[in-house]
């Protein structure tokens, strides 16, 4: 019965994605992405994929409360989006082709190149510092699961994550350069992605790939199938390589393996996605402690150490797969009122940012849009809205926009007419 319901949920998600993407003319429209990811993963959660579960509640079927929360969150987010940006407007071919011209008009390629090299230097120096401090590269170490956590230290971790921006800017420069320079900038983007893999944190190189793919998707012309295939292969390759190395400790010492944990590829996929909705149901079975934002948002945990302890205790509630969807965080912080209403606020903000990104593209709006789009796509797994990454990379984007802005005197009149303000 659960599998039958899951198929209906999957069909609803696919229909929702298809309608929104077709009406908007945008395969990565935030609302389409949310419907596909949210309902697609929820549908996956209806199937008993792992052979064994490390926690009994993972095997329990979904109850009415879980369905209420999942669909209320979906409708709330959708309503907020349409309140801020009514309708689905398909851009004309001229508007679509002008998007990259508008973006390029806000930047001087030479200055952007210098800024990109400087960011690469900072990010690479941070990577070397991490490796020297640890004494080994986490990806190739028997202590991989312990060492990888060091690459997410406060501040230093964000300097390491500057590789995201390097990958994006190098891809932009490659798209705007001649053949020789194009190869050099493409090589720099690949180098940043490989350095992100060294930290053995799966999400890091995958995030860099996502930044690049989002930019390439909105370039003029048709979205070529080979771009999609390349992106899919790259994601699977990166995920597979890191996963293999992360399991090297178990291969070396099989006694470390949890006998209740299924490590097959399909069970691993289920654990990193569908388990979140089982954790959501588990969360809703207990009263909300009303932490008022401590678990949902990064800033309180950054400036108030006791808040980090509360957040750590929250993650201990769940089994091995401690990712409980963004609704779980909102429920723990604000109760049912937060779970039902705050997604509408997120939908409205995402719609506003998306509108600015499409109408007035700049480095700032690209990076802010990417952050919100990833938060929307990963809402089934965690809460990333208004996190420290948004604060940090928005500041980086503003700095880059100022440093890489073209000199007024050198811009042709037709390009000046397109040029928007940085923000």
Task: Identify the notable features of this structure and list them briefly.
423 residues; mainly alpha
Strand content: under 5%
Give the N-terminus to C-terminus distance in angstroms. Answer: 51 Å
Largest pleated sheet = none
Q: Helical element count?
A: 20
Q: From the helix content, strand content and strand pairing, which structural class follows?
A: mainly alpha
pLDDT averaged residue by residue: 82
Q: Any idea what the shape is? A: globular
| Helical content (DSSP H or I, runs of 4+) | 55-70%
Number of DSSP E strands: 0
Query: How many discrete domains?
Result: 2
Unreliably modeled segments? 250-260, 409-423
Q: What is the string of helix and strand elements? A: HHHHHHHHHHHHHHHHHHHH
Gyration radius, in Å: 22 Å
Structural commentary:
The protein is mostly helical. It has two domains: 2-93 and 260-356, no CATH class; 107-252, no CATH class. 68% of the residues lie in helices and 0% in strands. The chain has helices spanning 2-24, 30-44, 64-84, 93-105, 109-134, 144-147, 156-160, 162-175, 179-198, 203-217, 225-246, 248-252, 265-271, 275-284, 298-303, 305-315, 325-359, 363-377, 388-403, 413-418. α10 (203-217) packs antiparallel against α11 and α17 packs antiparallel against α18 (363-377). The longest helix is centred in the C-terminal third of the chain and has 35 residues, at 325-359. It is globular, with a radius of gyration of 22 Å.
